[in-house]
Structure formats: structure tokens, C-alpha cells
Amino acid sequence: MVLHSVASFNSFNLNLFNLIMMQSPRGTKDILPTTINAWQQLEGIFRRVSSLFGYQEIRTPIFEHTEVFLRTIGENTDVVGKEMYIFPDKGGDSLTLRPEMTASVARAVVQHNLTASNPLQRLWYAGEFFRYERPQKGRYRQFHQFGAECIGSSSPEADVEVILLVVKFLSDIGLKEFSLEINTLANSEVRTRYRKKLVEYLTEQKSSLSPESQERLEKNPLRILDSKHPLDRKAVESAPTILDYLDNESAEHFEMVQHLLTVEGINFTIVPRLVRGLDYYSHTVFEFISTALGAQSALGGGGRYNDMFEEFGGKHTPAVGFAMGIERILLILEQTNPTLYRQTTPDVMMITIDKESYPYSQTIAQTLRSAGISTVMDVQGRSLKAQMREADRLGAAITIIIGENERTSGKITIKDMQSGVQETAGQENIKEIVRKMLSLSY
Ligand code: HAM
């Protein structure tokens, strides 16, 4: 009796285990062939736009020493405090799956002394990032970003350059539903002065803040400004804003950013409560927002970070950059630009009537592929009818039927699937004829 219940308990657990093991982990997603085309197109456009602005790609490891993120993003941020995937490796080092790329890029720039050969580094990246967040629409535990960093300039021109890069990218992918919000977090003296005033003000309101923000008041008071909690929103309504405390340097920098954006006809809104969730920013911060996204409305964001390189033992190197959330961009494009999702279709499907014709059919397929014409053939020994159905399902532009007649006569019939037009070719001119038919059918 006891044995029996242990056995059934185990088999229950085993089923549960199998069920869990058959799902991707919570907050992660498989990118299937049905959507890969959209991903690849976005990547291609981001690569092209980045190089239009003179940026070069950088790739860094997916994990770093935990310290890389602790020192830069800040211990009191949600990202470091709650969301990092930290693990010890077998040698006892503490490693972390990267939650963002800016710190890794700075680490790599210092490690390889990149600014020695060229003091201005323009770098872009695309990749996967990891944050242990509560998953919801537009928020995942493994997600993807495109980003760029302009390293080595303290000028407002560099801030605007990276914003213009984003605007060009969004325009080239046909995404119009966004707005640009900007703010300044000034230099550290201004921030310290402002933080003091803000804490004084919020301490008076402490009892009306959300429990989370009551805690933040000690550790990270600026974050209370962009809290979404209704209690906090109300409490910060009349809080002092940093814009009232700017010194000349910070004010001039921010005004120049606005001027340069205006010259380019870029619409923006100044949002004095925009502080961003990472501690490394000074001066300009910005976010691209879309109302089409619901709660997770930030398509991307970034800003200036002038003090990160010293953390890695490098010399003072002002920098500015941004990152865009690819999943969030795709959530919008799914609705507005479905052509992006069109799957790639083969140019040609070989229809092979009998087993003996297979080698001949294969040779023709190889001839076409060598000419850059994508060609698929049946590898399951299916009937003529089934192969024709498959050509239809795949959306092949052309079919070529090969049987005993074609094999022995060397005359091959090529059919344009859309118009039904047929042409006959020999092995020597088949590439030219297929190419001609393809150019007519596209
Ligand atoms: P971030 O605001 O933390 O900035 O992330 C940039 C974008 O990544 C967000 O606006 C959002 O679109 C996307 N994102 C962030 N977390 C998630 C998530 N859990 N699921 C889906 N998408 C997400 C940074 O990462 C900075 N490194 C940007 C930067 C570059 N600043 C200067 N240079």
C-alpha cells in the first residue's frame, strides 16, 4: 500500500517535471521561423543606420564579473538590487548575466585601451539581456536590445547624434507611434544639491508615499519621481524639479541639446521627472515612449554617463548612448507593418517524379543554387501531387518537373507558379531562363 502511493506520487512528480521541462523558462521566448524574418530585417536596418552614422559593432561576453554592474548601475537600483542573474562559477568567481550593455562596453573599451588609437569611439551592439522581472506584455526575463554608445565626447552634439540615430532607425522601420521625452540630470554637484531638497520635501510627505518609495527615500530618492504608484504620483506632483537648480554648465548643455533637436525638426517633451532606472547618468537623459504598448511604454532610452570609465581604472571619458527594446518594437510592428513578418519563400521547387530521376534533379538544384537561386527539393519520396502541394505551401515562385522524359531528352520544363507560363530549357541555359522568369515574377 505504502509502496503504491510512493510510486504514484513519483509518477505525478515526474509528469509535472516533464511538463515544466517542456516549456521554455518563465519570461523567455523562442523566436520561431514564423517571426525570424522580422527580427532579421530589423537587425539589418539597425546595422545599416548605425554605419550611416559611422558606428562600428562591438560584441562582449554574455556574462561579466558581477562587480562590473555593481559599480556602474548602482547597488540601490532595481536592476542590481532585485533583477540580476548572479551565479558563482566553479572557480568561485561571482558572475552575472548581463542586464544591459553600457557597463560591458565601458569595461571592454578600458580593457583594450580603444581610446588610445581613436579618442572618439562610436560603437553599436545587438544582443540578449537578462533581468529577473515579473513577466508581462513587453517585459521579459530574457530580452533583446539594439544600442549604441558614443564614447569620448562631452558635447551636446554627441547627445543629439545618438538621438538622431534612433529617430532614423524608427523612421526606416516605419514606426511612427512614438514620442521623445528628455530631461537633464545635470552634473553631480547640482544633483547632490537637488537630492537634498527633494528628500526634505518628500520626508514631509513620507506617510503618503507607497511603502516601496518610503524605503527609496533613504537609498534612491530620485527614483520616487518616476514611480508609477498612484500614491507616489500624487506626492511628487508639486515636488521641486531639478530644472530649478541647474548651474550654468548644466543649463547650457541642456539648452544646446534642445536647440539641436529643434534645428532637425525633432519633436520632444521636457519631462522634469524623467530620471531613468540606472544610476550612472548625468546631464541629458531621454526615453522614446509609445502609447501603443500599455504599461511597458518605453521603447528605448539612454543618456549621458561621464563618470563610468574611471570605475574600470580608465581615464575620465565622457560618453552618451541608448538602447532600444526589440520585443517592444516588434509588438508595435506586428500590428502596423505585417509585411515585415513575411516569411522567405524559395525561388524554385524541384518536383521529382521517380526515384531514378533524383540524381538528375539534384544536379539541377545544385546548378541553380550555385547561381544564387534558392532551390528546394523533396527528400521524403512523396508523390507528384504531394510535391506540388508542398510547392504551393512554401510559396515557391517556380517549379521544375523532372522525370524520365526530362532526364533522357535533356529538355526541362520550367513553370512560373503565379502566371502559369511555361518555358523549356536545356541544362546549359537553365540558370538564365530561371533568372529571367524570377525577375518577371517579382
Ligand atoms: P534601459 O532603459 O534599462 O536602458 O533599457 C533600454 C530598453 O530596453 C527599455 O526602454 C526597454 O525597451 C528594453 N527593456 C528593458 N528591460 C526589459 C525587459 N525586462 N523586457 C523587455 N524589454 C526591456 C539601458 O539598458 C541602458 N543601457 C541604455 C543606455 C545605453 N544608456 C546609455 N547607453
Shape: elongated
What small molecules are bound in this structure? histidyl-adenosine monophosphate
Q: Can you give the mean pLDDT?
A: 94
Q: Proportion of β residues?
A: 15-25%
| Count of discrete structural domains | 2
CATH architecture name of the largest domain: 2-Layer Sandwich
Distance between the termini: 71 Å
Number of strands: 16
CATH fold label of the largest domain:
BirA Bifunctional Protein, domain 2
Let me know the largest β-sheet.
8 strands, mixed
Compute the number of helices: 17
Q: Give me the Rg, rounded.
A: 29 Å
The structure class reads alpha+beta
Helix content estimate: 40-55%
In short, what is this structure?
The chain is of the alpha+beta class. The chain is 43% helix and 19% strand.
